Protein backbone atom coordinates (compact mmCIF):
# COMPACT_ATOMS: atom_id res chain seq x y z
CA UNK A 1 0.00 0.00 0.00
CA UNK A 2 0.93 3.62 -0.40
CA UNK A 3 1.65 3.87 3.32
CA UNK A 4 4.98 2.19 2.58
CA UNK A 5 6.14 5.54 1.26
CA UNK A 6 6.53 6.59 4.85
CA UNK A 7 5.15 10.11 4.62
CA UNK A 8 2.47 9.24 7.20
CA UNK A 9 4.07 6.26 8.87
CA UNK A 10 3.31 7.33 12.46
CA UNK A 11 -0.37 7.80 11.76
CA UNK A 12 -0.54 4.41 10.03
CA UNK A 13 0.71 2.69 13.18
CA UNK A 14 -1.82 4.62 15.24
CA UNK A 15 -4.58 3.22 13.04
CA UNK A 16 -3.13 -0.30 13.22
CA UNK A 17 -3.03 -0.15 17.02
CA UNK A 18 -6.62 1.04 17.10
CA UNK A 19 -7.69 -1.84 14.81
CA UNK A 20 -5.99 -4.35 17.10
CA UNK A 21 -7.85 -2.85 20.04
CA UNK A 22 -11.17 -3.35 18.27
CA UNK A 23 -10.48 -6.92 17.08
CA UNK A 24 -11.35 -8.81 20.31
CA UNK A 25 -14.54 -6.80 20.69
CA UNK A 26 -15.62 -7.62 17.14
CA UNK A 27 -14.74 -11.32 17.64
CA UNK A 28 -16.60 -11.77 20.91
CA UNK A 29 -19.62 -9.57 20.28
CA UNK A 30 -20.41 -9.55 16.52
CA UNK A 31 -24.13 -8.93 17.03
CA UNK A 32 -23.40 -5.95 19.24
CA UNK A 33 -21.07 -4.55 16.59
CA UNK A 34 -23.74 -4.95 13.90
CA UNK A 35 -26.25 -3.08 16.03
CA UNK A 36 -23.69 -0.39 16.78
CA UNK A 37 -22.26 -0.25 13.26
CA UNK A 38 -23.36 3.31 12.52
CA UNK A 39 -22.10 4.56 15.86
CA UNK A 40 -18.88 2.58 15.47
CA UNK A 41 -18.23 4.05 12.04
CA UNK A 42 -18.76 7.51 13.44
CA UNK A 43 -16.34 6.86 16.31
CA UNK A 44 -13.70 5.46 13.98
CA UNK A 45 -14.12 8.43 11.65
CA UNK A 46 -13.75 10.86 14.53
CA UNK A 47 -10.68 8.98 15.77
CA UNK A 48 -8.99 9.16 12.38
CA UNK A 49 -10.02 12.77 11.92
CA UNK A 50 -8.47 13.59 15.28
CA UNK A 51 -5.20 11.97 14.27
CA UNK A 52 -5.06 13.85 11.01
CA UNK A 53 -6.48 17.21 12.04
CA UNK A 54 -3.10 18.73 12.88
CA UNK A 55 -2.04 19.69 9.38
CA UNK A 56 0.65 22.02 8.07
CA UNK A 57 -0.96 25.41 7.41
CA UNK A 58 0.07 28.09 4.90
CA UNK A 59 2.83 30.32 6.21
CA UNK A 60 1.84 33.37 4.17
CA UNK A 61 -1.14 34.32 2.02
CA UNK A 62 -1.04 35.38 -1.60
CA UNK A 63 -1.87 39.06 -1.92
CA UNK A 64 -1.35 39.58 -5.64
CA UNK A 65 -4.08 41.97 -6.87
CA UNK A 66 -4.52 40.19 -10.21
CA UNK A 67 -5.03 36.72 -8.79
CA UNK A 68 -8.64 35.49 -8.71
CA UNK A 69 -9.21 32.80 -6.08
CA UNK A 70 -12.47 30.86 -6.13
CA UNK A 71 -13.10 28.22 -3.52
CA UNK A 72 -15.61 25.42 -3.04
CA UNK A 73 -15.79 22.56 -0.58
CA UNK A 74 -13.99 20.39 -3.17
CA UNK A 75 -11.20 22.56 -4.57
CA UNK A 76 -9.50 25.95 -4.91
CA UNK A 77 -9.26 27.55 -8.38
CA UNK A 78 -6.67 30.17 -9.33
CA UNK A 79 -7.11 32.31 -12.43
CA UNK A 80 -6.92 35.88 -13.76
CA UNK A 81 -8.94 37.95 -16.19
CA UNK A 82 -6.34 36.92 -18.82
CA UNK A 83 -6.64 33.16 -18.30
CA UNK A 84 -6.25 31.30 -21.59
CA UNK A 85 -8.20 28.06 -21.43
CA UNK A 86 -6.81 26.86 -24.74
CA UNK A 87 -3.83 25.88 -22.63
CA UNK A 88 -3.91 22.88 -20.34
CA UNK A 89 -5.13 23.50 -16.83
CA UNK A 90 -3.06 22.35 -13.86
CA UNK A 91 -4.68 20.10 -11.27
CA UNK A 92 -2.83 19.34 -8.04
CA UNK A 93 -2.97 16.87 -5.13
CA UNK A 94 -1.55 18.40 -1.89
CA UNK A 95 1.08 16.64 0.22
CA UNK A 96 0.07 14.47 3.16
CA UNK A 97 -1.29 16.45 6.12
CA UNK A 98 -0.76 19.75 4.31
CA UNK A 99 -3.59 22.27 4.02
CA UNK A 100 -4.39 22.85 0.30
CA UNK A 101 -4.10 26.61 0.76
CA UNK A 102 -0.37 26.10 1.34
CA UNK A 103 -0.01 25.48 -2.42
CA UNK A 104 -1.62 28.70 -3.61
CA UNK A 105 1.61 30.68 -3.47
CA UNK A 106 3.82 27.97 -5.07
CA UNK A 107 1.38 27.56 -7.98
CA UNK A 108 0.09 31.11 -8.46
CA UNK A 109 2.65 31.99 -11.15
CA UNK A 110 1.02 29.48 -13.49
CA UNK A 111 -2.13 31.60 -13.31
CA UNK A 112 -0.45 35.02 -13.13
CA UNK A 113 2.36 34.60 -15.67
CA UNK A 114 1.37 31.59 -17.76
CA UNK A 115 -2.36 32.42 -17.90
CA UNK A 116 -3.48 28.93 -16.91
CA UNK A 117 -6.32 27.69 -14.75
CA UNK A 118 -4.90 26.10 -11.60
CA UNK A 119 -7.02 23.78 -9.47
CA UNK A 120 -5.84 22.61 -6.04
CA UNK A 121 -7.85 19.67 -4.77
CA UNK A 122 -9.20 19.44 -1.22
CA UNK A 123 -9.02 15.92 0.18
CA UNK A 124 -10.38 14.14 3.24
CA UNK A 125 -8.33 14.78 6.38
CA UNK A 126 -5.69 16.39 4.13
CA UNK A 127 -4.65 12.94 2.93
CA UNK A 128 -4.85 12.61 -0.84
CA UNK A 129 -4.70 8.82 -0.66
CA UNK A 130 -8.21 8.84 0.83
CA UNK A 131 -9.51 10.47 -2.40
CA UNK A 132 -7.39 8.86 -5.11
CA UNK A 133 -10.06 9.33 -7.80
CA UNK A 134 -10.81 12.95 -7.04
CA UNK A 135 -8.79 14.51 -9.85
CA UNK A 136 -10.19 12.29 -12.60
CA UNK A 137 -13.75 12.86 -11.39
CA UNK A 138 -13.22 16.64 -11.23
CA UNK A 139 -11.98 17.31 -14.78
CA UNK A 140 -15.47 17.38 -16.30
CA UNK A 141 -16.80 19.71 -13.60
CA UNK A 142 -14.74 22.70 -14.76
CA UNK A 143 -16.22 24.59 -17.70
CA UNK A 144 -14.01 25.70 -20.62
CA UNK A 145 -10.92 23.65 -19.66
CA UNK A 146 -10.61 20.68 -21.99
CA UNK A 147 -7.08 19.48 -21.14
CA UNK A 148 -5.46 18.94 -17.77
CA UNK A 149 -2.00 18.18 -16.41
CA UNK A 150 -1.99 16.41 -13.06
CA UNK A 151 0.63 16.93 -10.35
CA UNK A 152 1.19 16.46 -6.67
CA UNK A 153 3.61 16.89 -3.80
CA UNK A 154 4.90 14.00 -1.71
CA UNK A 155 1.97 11.67 -0.90
CA UNK A 156 -0.11 13.79 -3.27
CA UNK A 157 2.25 12.97 -6.14
CA UNK A 158 2.00 9.24 -5.49
CA UNK A 159 -1.77 9.61 -5.36
CA UNK A 160 -1.70 11.43 -8.71
CA UNK A 161 0.08 8.38 -10.15
CA UNK A 162 -2.64 6.08 -8.79
CA UNK A 163 -5.33 8.27 -10.33
CA UNK A 164 -3.59 8.30 -13.71
CA UNK A 165 -2.98 4.53 -13.54
CA UNK A 166 -6.72 4.01 -13.17
CA UNK A 167 -7.75 6.76 -15.61
CA UNK A 168 -5.06 6.91 -18.28
CA UNK A 169 -7.03 9.04 -20.73
CA UNK A 170 -7.96 11.75 -18.23
CA UNK A 171 -4.71 13.76 -18.25
CA UNK A 172 -2.22 15.09 -20.79
CA UNK A 173 0.82 15.12 -18.51
CA UNK A 174 2.13 14.36 -15.02
CA UNK A 175 4.51 16.20 -12.68
CA UNK A 176 5.79 14.96 -9.34
CA UNK A 177 7.29 17.10 -6.59
CA UNK A 178 9.37 15.07 -4.12
CA UNK A 179 7.44 11.93 -4.98
CA UNK A 180 7.35 8.74 -7.05
CA UNK A 181 4.95 6.21 -8.53
CA UNK A 182 4.15 2.88 -6.90
CA UNK A 183 1.99 2.03 -9.91
CA UNK A 184 3.24 0.69 -13.26
CA UNK A 185 3.25 3.64 -15.67
CA UNK A 186 6.39 2.79 -17.66
CA UNK A 187 4.50 2.53 -20.96
CA UNK A 188 2.14 5.46 -20.55
CA UNK A 189 2.19 7.92 -23.44
CA UNK A 190 2.18 11.28 -21.67
CA UNK A 191 5.02 13.64 -20.70
CA UNK A 192 6.27 13.13 -17.12
CA UNK A 193 8.66 15.16 -14.97
CA UNK A 194 9.91 14.47 -11.45
CA UNK A 195 11.40 17.33 -9.41
CA UNK A 196 13.29 16.71 -6.17
CA UNK A 197 15.48 18.79 -3.84
CA UNK A 198 18.99 18.12 -2.58
CA UNK A 199 18.27 18.87 1.11
CA UNK A 200 15.01 16.91 1.27
CA UNK A 201 15.27 14.57 4.27
CA UNK A 202 11.61 13.51 4.13
CA UNK A 203 11.57 11.79 0.74
CA UNK A 204 13.02 8.28 0.93
CA UNK A 205 15.67 8.27 -1.82
CA UNK A 206 15.95 4.49 -1.71
CA UNK A 207 12.26 4.15 -2.49
CA UNK A 208 12.48 6.89 -5.13
CA UNK A 209 15.23 5.04 -6.98
CA UNK A 210 13.60 1.63 -6.50
CA UNK A 211 10.35 2.87 -8.04
CA UNK A 212 11.88 4.58 -11.07
CA UNK A 213 11.11 1.37 -12.98
CA UNK A 214 7.43 2.32 -12.72
CA UNK A 215 7.94 5.36 -14.94
CA UNK A 216 9.31 5.73 -18.49
CA UNK A 217 13.04 5.86 -19.22
CA UNK A 218 14.91 8.39 -17.07
CA UNK A 219 16.54 11.54 -18.44
CA UNK A 220 18.47 13.57 -15.84
CA UNK A 221 18.92 17.30 -16.40
CA UNK A 222 20.40 20.16 -14.35
CA UNK A 223 18.46 23.13 -15.72
CA UNK A 224 15.50 24.02 -17.95
CA UNK A 225 17.94 24.88 -20.76
CA UNK A 226 18.90 21.20 -20.98
CA UNK A 227 15.36 20.04 -21.71
CA UNK A 228 14.97 18.53 -25.20
CA UNK A 229 13.45 20.81 -27.83
CA UNK A 230 10.80 18.24 -28.66
CA UNK A 231 8.16 16.12 -26.96
CA UNK A 232 9.41 14.14 -23.97
CA UNK A 233 6.79 11.38 -24.25
CA UNK A 234 8.49 8.08 -23.50
CA UNK A 235 10.90 9.64 -21.02
CA UNK A 236 10.73 10.81 -17.42
CA UNK A 237 12.60 14.07 -16.85
CA UNK A 238 14.41 14.16 -13.49
CA UNK A 239 15.50 17.51 -12.08
CA UNK A 240 17.04 18.04 -8.65
CA UNK A 241 16.94 21.52 -7.11
CA UNK A 242 20.24 22.23 -5.39
CA UNK A 243 19.71 23.68 -1.91
CA UNK A 244 15.97 23.05 -1.74
CA UNK A 245 14.10 20.87 0.74
CA UNK A 246 10.80 19.00 1.07
CA UNK A 247 8.66 21.64 2.76
CA UNK A 248 9.60 24.42 0.36
CA UNK A 249 7.70 22.74 -2.47
CA UNK A 250 4.76 24.11 -0.51
CA UNK A 251 4.38 27.22 1.60
CA UNK A 252 3.93 25.92 5.14
CA UNK A 253 7.24 26.51 6.88
CA UNK A 254 9.54 23.92 8.40
CA UNK A 255 8.51 20.27 8.25
CA UNK A 256 9.51 17.81 10.96
CA UNK A 257 12.49 15.71 9.89
CA UNK A 258 13.29 17.84 6.85
CA UNK A 259 16.73 19.14 5.93
CA UNK A 260 17.74 22.80 6.13
CA UNK A 261 17.38 24.55 2.80
CA UNK A 262 20.15 26.84 1.58
CA UNK A 263 17.85 28.67 -0.83
CA UNK A 264 14.72 30.63 0.01
CA UNK A 265 11.19 29.29 -0.36
CA UNK A 266 10.51 31.88 -3.07
CA UNK A 267 13.58 30.76 -5.00
CA UNK A 268 12.53 27.13 -4.86
CA UNK A 269 9.05 28.05 -6.11
CA UNK A 270 10.63 30.02 -8.96
CA UNK A 271 12.90 27.13 -9.96
CA UNK A 272 9.93 24.75 -10.02
CA UNK A 273 7.91 27.22 -12.09
CA UNK A 274 10.68 27.84 -14.62
CA UNK A 275 11.27 24.13 -15.14
CA UNK A 276 7.60 23.19 -15.39
CA UNK A 277 6.81 26.12 -17.65
CA UNK A 278 9.40 25.05 -20.22
CA UNK A 279 8.44 21.38 -19.82
CA UNK A 280 4.82 22.25 -20.64
CA UNK A 281 5.84 24.47 -23.56
CA UNK A 282 8.00 21.89 -25.35
CA UNK A 283 5.25 19.32 -24.94
CA UNK A 284 2.67 21.70 -26.41
CA UNK A 285 0.62 21.72 -23.25
Describe what this molecule looks like in 3D.
A hairpin with a 3-residue loop joins strand 1 and strand 2. Helix content is 32%, strand content 16%. The protein has a nine-stranded mixed sheet with strand order 1-2-4-3-5-6-7-9-8, sandwiched between helices. It is an alpha/beta fold and 285 residues long.
SSE arrangement:
Layout: H1 9-28, H2 30-35, H3 37-52, E1 68-71, E2 75-79, E3 89-93, H4 104-112, E4 118-121, H5 134-138, E5 148-153, H6 155-166, E6 173-177, E7 192-197, H7 205-210, E8 217-221, E9 235-241, H8 265-282
Parallel strand pairs: 3-4, 3-5, 5-6, 6-7, 7-9, 8-9
Antiparallel strand pairs: 1-2, 2-4
Helix pairs in contact: 4-8
Entry keywords:
285 residues; alpha/beta; 9-stranded mixed sheet; 8 helices; 32% helix
Quick description:
The chain has 285 residues and is α/β, with parallel strands linked by helices.
Q: What's the CATH H-level homologous superfamily of the largest domain? A: Alpha/Beta hydrolase fold, catalytic domain
The percent of residues in helical segments reads 25-40%
User: N- to C-terminal separation?
Assistant: 32 Å
Strand content: 15-25%
| Form type | globular
Amino acid sequence: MIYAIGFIEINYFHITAFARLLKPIITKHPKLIIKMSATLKTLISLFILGLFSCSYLPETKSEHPNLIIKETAEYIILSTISTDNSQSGIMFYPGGLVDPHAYIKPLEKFALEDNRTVLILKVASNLAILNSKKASTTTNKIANVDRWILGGHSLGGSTACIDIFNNQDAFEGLFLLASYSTKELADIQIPIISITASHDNVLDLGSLNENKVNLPEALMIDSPELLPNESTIGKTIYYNIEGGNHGQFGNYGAQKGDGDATITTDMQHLLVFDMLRKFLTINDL
